[in-house]
Amino acid sequence: MSSLTDWRKLHGGNFDRQAVLVTGGAGFIGSHLAAALHELGADVTVLDDLSGGGDPAALPKAVHFVKGSILDQPLLQKCTEGRRLVFHQAALGSVPRSIEQPRLYHDVNAVGTLCVLESARLAGVRRVMFAASSSAYGDSPTLPKIETMPTSPRSPYAATKVAGEALLAAYAVSLNLDTVSLRYFNIFGPRQSADNAYAAVIAAFAKAMLSGKRPTIFGDGQQSRDFTYVDNVVHANLLAASHPQPLGGAIINIACGGRISVNQLAREMAQWLRRTDLTPIYAAERAGDVKHSLADLSLAQSTLGYAPIVDFVSGLDATMQWYRSALAAHTQSK
Ligand SMILES: NC(=O)c1ccc[n+]([C@@H]2O[C@H](COP(=O)([O-])OP(=O)(O)OC[C@H]3O[C@@H](n4cnc5c(N)ncnc54)[C@H](O)[C@@H]3O)[C@@H](O)[C@H]2O)c1
Fold first, then answer.
1. Residue 245 Cα, ligand 1 centroid: separation in angstroms?
2. What is the sign of the dihedral through the CA atoms of 190, 194, 199 and 205?
3. How many CB atoms lie within 10 A of CB 275?
4. N or C: which end of the chain has fewer CB within 10 A?
5. Which residues does a 6 A CB cutoff place in the pocket of ligand 1?
6. Ligand 1 centroid to residue 76 C-alpha, Å
7. What is the third-level CATH fold of 8-186+229-257+289-310?
8. Of 219, 189, 193, 218, which is closest to residue 204 (Cα–Cα)?
């Protein structure tokens, strides 16, 4: 598994022989996190039910993969026992699908997070890191988004992520389990799924454009996002996990700190491919989508010493290269 980042250089021996659990570790972000932890000498267990379509074969061989759900409390407890750190990445991730299936999203994302916290508490885990989401901010026009702003979830997905943050804070205050919620902003990179109707925008555009098709934009394309390469979010998780003081349920933005419109993204990807003829097709705006998103990173900087390590352009280049090779491998295997 290749990464743009030399994890040893950044995190030294902080994770040597540490026993860790990554829930959702066969997924996009979780698999990058599991690989970095493995590279850093950690003893990594992944629990994933593969509902997101991830391939555990993509994980390093030494990672212990367990197929199962975070809602299976006895199995989850078994996976958590003896672990020092838990990186909770497992969730259902699509905003539009959460509007169709709110109950399922609540069960997996909110109740599932409660199950992870309860197992961690019983197992005496040192800290739980939670994959929270910038969708918690909703559509307030104020930019950048700062953690002190009120939450305003606009979809069941966002509501489950806010519920998760509240549970993490409550466990830190009342149940003697240290926790931290990292609010991710539009993460992209190699292995992000492009194979479902709800694919994140970069994955969806890459899949369409590499097959010579025009990308579809929902809305006018002026909506903007703080697109963040996956290594940045892995770095933030590692900083949070090795932080010497308790984090007490803190909620912290993790992003790149820049804003790119979806129109601009489509243009940059077309230029990368030298296919400027692949202009976007515009479709109706989707319910629950927010207009603009940009993170304030002051708290991440002051609390964790976080700053992005891979910028948007380098991240997009690595991502496009990966999708191109993945498509070529797929075509050859047919
Ligand atoms: N990708 C983003 O831009 C983004 C932004 C904000 C927050 N997040 C959060 O980051 C985390 C990882 O997201 P991702 O983009 O890697 O998505 P992903 O779908 O690739 O990964 C999620 C993984 O969780 C697994 N999973 C789902 N339900 C499960 C269950 N009941 N038990 C065990 N495993 C289960 C899936 O099989 C999948 O492998 C999620 O919690 C997501 O909500 C992602």
1. 27
2. positive
3. 14
4. C
5. 23-24, 26-30, 47-52, 54, 69-71, 89-93, 108, 112, 131, 133, 184, 186-187, 193, 200
6. 16
7. Rossmann fold (3.40.50)
8. 193
Q: Output the pLDDT for position 82.
A: 98
Residue nearest to atom 26 of ligand 1 (CA): 90
Which amino acid belongs to residue 287? A
Distance of CA 25 from the midpoint of ligand 1 (Å): 8
Q: How far is the CA of 267 from the centre of ligand 1 (A)?
A: 28
- Best probe residue, ligand 1, of 23, 51, 66, 188 (max atoms within 8 Å of C-beta): 51
Candidates 100, 110, 45; CA nearest to 71 is 110
Instruction: Give the pairing of strands 127-133 and 187-188.
Output: unpaired
Consecutive 10-residue averages of pLDDT for the chain (334 residues): 87 98 98 98 98 95 98 98 98 93 98 98 98 93 96 95 98 98 97 82 96 96 96 98 98 98 97 97 86 96 98 97 90 75
Supply the pLDDT for residue 63. 98
Dist. CA 254–CA 299, nearest whole Å: 9
**Which ligand 1 atom sits closest to the C-alpha of 88?**
41
**At which residue do the structure tokens 């900083």 appear?**
239
Residues 278-317 as b/e (b if ≥16 CB within 10 A, e otherwise) read: bebeeeeeeebebebbbbbbebbeebbebebbbebeebbe
Instruction: Point out which residues pair with 225 in neighbouring strands.
Output: 260
Which residue is associated with the tokens 């590692």? 238
Phi, psi for residue 213 in degrees, rounded to 5:
-105, 155
Would the pTM count as exceeding 0.85?
A: yes
74: number of Cβ within 10 Å: 9
Contact in structure between 278 and 213 (CB atoms under 8 Å): yes
Atom of ligand 1 nearest to the CA of 90: 24
Tell me which of 105, 137, 157, 306 is the catalytic residue.
Answer: 157
157 given a catalytic annotation: yes
